[in-house]
Amino acid sequence: MATEVKRLIKVRVAKGASFKRDGYGKKRQLSDSWRKPRGQHNKQREQKKAKGALPKPGYGSPIAVRGMHPSGFFEMLVTSEKDLEGLNPKTHAVRIGGTVGTRKRAVLQEKAVTAGLKILNAKVVMAVVKAEKPAESKSADKPKIAEKTSVKSKLSAALTSKKEKPATPAAEKKSPAASVKKTEKAPEKKAEKVKPSSETPAKKSPKKPAEPVAAAKESKPKAESASKAKPKKKSESEVKKNE
Known about the structure:
Layout: H1 2-15, E1 74-78, E2 92-96, H2 102-115, E3 118-119, H3 138-164, H4 167-194, H5 210-229, H6 236-242
Parallel strand pairs: 1-2, 2-3
């Protein structure tokens, strides 16, 4: 029977004709879907040469293969699990509806395969059913935050170390010249300290402000002694006694 079906499908293909409406290539707004020509002088209606064939009973496909899919199965549209019931895997093939979601499609495909049915529009569904994660407590989230902060700190430390490393060779290059300058300046300072006093100019001008301080110190005891030496005024009673 299978070989006979294949032969009849080939006959159907050989007899098949595409019927197109008259003038579909002349005007952009006309589609190639079939429309019967009704014009009084229409060339297609009059069956002029190269104007297109008209649908006739001779173009029909064999009854045994009429409406059959080219694969040799009768196509059945499926949108739920109930539609899979009562289908014969030898004569029927399954086409899953376009409105079916991925989760439901995975279930329908599994059941169709187990039943031995051919799926005409099978698709590979990756990780449709997600495993339910247990409700984690807030305490479990804290270590994750701590890990993130530690990783950030490590990255920042690594970046700073990389930035600081190139600066060290330049400093090492400059250090010999700086050490030479320091060695040159050091003996000069020592020589300046060892210079004799005769060479240095005898200028004691900054010590002048000290003299008024000494004079102020000397004046204070004199004023105190003068205040002590002043005689006390005698009262009237003492004057009378003396008289």
